[in-house]
Amino acid sequence: MGDNRGVVYLGPNKVEVQDIDDPKMQSPDGRKIEHGVILKVVSTNICGSDQHMVRGRTTAAPGLVLGHEITGEVFEIGSDVEMVSKGDLVSVPFNVACGRCRTCREQNSGVCLTVNPSRPGGAYGYVDMGGWIGGQSRYVLVPYADFNLLRFPDKAQAMARIRDLTMLTDILPTGFHGAVTAKVGVGSTVYIAGAGPVGLAAAASARILGAAVVMIGDMNPARLAHAKKVGFEPIDLTQHDRLGELIEHVVGIPEVDSFIDAVGFEAKGHGGAEQPAVILNQAMAVTRAAGAIGIPGLYVTEDPGAVDEAGKTGNLSLRFGQGWAKSQSLHTGQTPTLRYNRQLMQAILHGRLPIADIVNATVISLEDAAAGYADFDKGAAKKFVLDPHGLLGAAEAA
Description:
The chain is an alpha/beta fold.
């Protein structure tokens, strides 16, 4: 090594690719570990959750190395690693998880109890998630490797589909989790709030789960056009603020079986003003009685840029009574990626889930990351994939 570079958050709306320290076999508090591996990063994606931090909407401190969507080649292994070998190509769940605590053993690895001293759940390169160094870099440490890593069975086959497989780290399992927790099944009518990458991944997941109609609502014309291009029903939220009527134009009634919130706390209402609870209230209004609402969109405990004092501590004004009265189920929280990533890998490898085309995966170099963040912030209908070593470009050219 000795040539590590990473995307560093420097303050609101400013990121820069800098020289960073090589990863070491140690935890954030400095303890030596032998259960980890160091990866040579093959691909690493820009996520909407990263964008929340870059906009200054969290308490992230300058100097944070970003990136939690990581696919890589095993470069170095600790002495307590048995299930992967040097040279293996692997997918890394964005959740840092020990595999040993109660929640991990229950397959709730998104809220591991041991990897973050401040609260349940850990992640790479993310505020308040345990201090683990991010993977928008050339090399990165992954702890508890035997538990966390998903090894691709055929390296050449995987590299041929790497633009798809890079989505296994976060957005595809997150979209799938949203669809599963919204109880999408054969014949379901589904509405998804947000036509960004997670919303599109949720739509792809709803389709593979058998939904009859998949609607995606947004105010961004480029994203709506792309959603239509890849086979989903776009709902233009700039038309008016009566979501039920917009849904009725498509399915004949002003309600759906399943609702997925893929936007989260930076939601905007009709007219463009920020209304962090608007989607959750819409969800309870248009989801049928005994229907289900999946909420993979991010909601934070602290938001310095909130529109009101309550929002700064994650308090939202919800009309919860309507959801209660309709016996709706709501499911929140970080996705336990390991619960889904192996099955989704199989769907990709066997041609069932062309997720790269669905989310419009766009490969750029690591050094161009700042430009990618800027374009994504402007609402580009793309999912930016960083290529730290030029390996994706080489794979696409082959």
